[in-house]
Automatic annotation (TrEMBL):
GO molecular function terms noted in the UniProt entry: iron ion binding; oxidoreductase activity
Highest rank taxon of the organism: Eukaryota
Listed name of the protein: Fatty acid hydroxylase superfamily-domain-containing protein
Lineage: Eukaryota, Fungi, Dikarya, Ascomycota, Pezizomycotina
Native source species: Podospora appendiculata
Keyword Transmembrane helix annotated: yes
């Protein structure tokens, strides 16, 4: 031990070597996967609801009857599918441009970044004795009294002093190491809190962008007539009609908003891909036409299929503008539907059933 020297009172940061992050799947690059994954998710979720719809598997959870779909919608399923594919082509083109502005995502520096956060946590502990002193507490005395039974708590109270933690490098230098709890907190910050905050920023931006553009398209007669009225030809929404829009509306409201959200939240390309996939699945689910008690996407927030369906009805068209995640703008600005909807839905069901019956007699 005589030839050992103490390098610093802080644990050294690990060396690292960056390298391109391997593709998520072995048979396709992340670049191409990011372009097509949201649309695969769109049609996969839509197919599930289409099968439920065609075979009438859960009639008790329908928001509308099959007669309503036939009688009230003003666009054919072919027109809907055609316009959705056009919008998806625009989205893929936009995503291509967006992806080309990003550098290749790298890996290899994760342990270093975690260690940086652990260092910040260690440095933050140095303020504890002073803070406790403001409360009239002697941090050194408290630390000394609990050192035998609670050494890590004692070390934190002493200002991040852990003399029992250390290791010896190959060169014979003794260096301190991080406590397990410091690394756990650092990993939680790096792997959960920071990505979670970035996703929260992206979600809030998308909701804000879509709320005000969506509301503007209802308040401005020209924008409604030229753009948004097409989406409202579906009085009875169904899953794959979620992106049934005028191309201009689809680009401004959905594609551009999501792209800016990705940029301002500083999502990584990999995390951005998951954000776009989840956003697409949520949009489809919001138009599925079912209030399913076991559908997790309908319970994450109050903005779900039942909530958005109200907006598609003639009596609720000036309410429930929020989409696709949260409802806070409707609550803040007083555009959330208030009141019972059961009687209104029942009247539309009866009217559609009566018209269907008349049509059959006429034949």
């Amino acid at each position: 031990m005589a030839n050992m020297t103490v390098a610093s009172d802080l644990p050294p940061l690990p060396v690292f070597e960056v390298r391109p992050m391997p593709d998520l799947l072995p048979f396709i690059s992340d670049f191409w996967l990011s372009l097509i994954a949201p649309h695969i998710a769109y049609w996969a979720v839509s197919l599930v609801f289409h099968i439920i719809d065609v075979y009438d598997l859960f009639p008790q959870y329908r928001l509308h009857t099959p007669e309503e779909i036939t009688q009230r919608n003003l666009a054919t399923r072919y027109e809907v599918a055609r316009d959705v594919i056009i919008e998806q082509i625009i989205q893929i083109a936009t995503s291509t441009v967006l992806s080309l502005t990003e550098l290749r995502q790298m890996t290899g520096m994760e342990d270093y970044d975690v260690a940086v956060w652990a260092t910040r946590i260690r440095l933050a502990q140095r303020s504890l004795p002073s803070l406790l002193g403001l409360l009239g507490l002697n941090a050194a005395s408290i630390s000394k009294n609990m050192a035998a039974n609670h050494p890590f708590l004692a070390g934190a109270l002493a200002g991040g002093h852990y003399p029992f933690l250390g290791t010896v490098l190959d060169a014979g230098t003794q260096v301190p190491t991080f406590a397990a709890w410091e690394l756990l907190v650092a990993k939680t910050i790096y792997w959960l809190i920071i990505p979670g905050f970035q996703l929260w920023v992206a979600v809030c931006f998308v909701d804000t962008w879509q709320y005000f553009w969506h509301r503007a398209m209802h308040m401005n007669k020209w924008m409604y007539t030229k753009w948004h009225a097409r989406h409202h030809r579906l009085y009875v929404p169904y899953a794959y009609g979620a992106l049934y829009n005028h191309p201009v509306e689809g680009f401004v409201l959905d594609t551009l908003g999501a792209g800016i959200a990705y940029k301002v939240s500083f999502l990584s390309p990999r995390l951005g891909m998951w954000f776009f996939v989840c956003s697409m699945m949520k949009t489809v689910d919001d138009h599925c036409g079912y209030k399913l008690p076991w559908d997790p996407l309908q319970h994450i927030t109050s903005n779900n299929a039942a909530y958005h369906d109200i907006h598609h009805q003639s009596w609720g068209i000036k309410t429930n503008f929020s989409q696709p995640f949260l409802t806070f703008w409707d609550k803040i600005l007083g555009t959330r539907w208030e009141g019972n909807t059961s009687e209104k839905y029942e009247r539309t069901r009866e009217a559609a059933a009566t018209k269907t019956a008349k049509d059959k007699k006429a034949q």
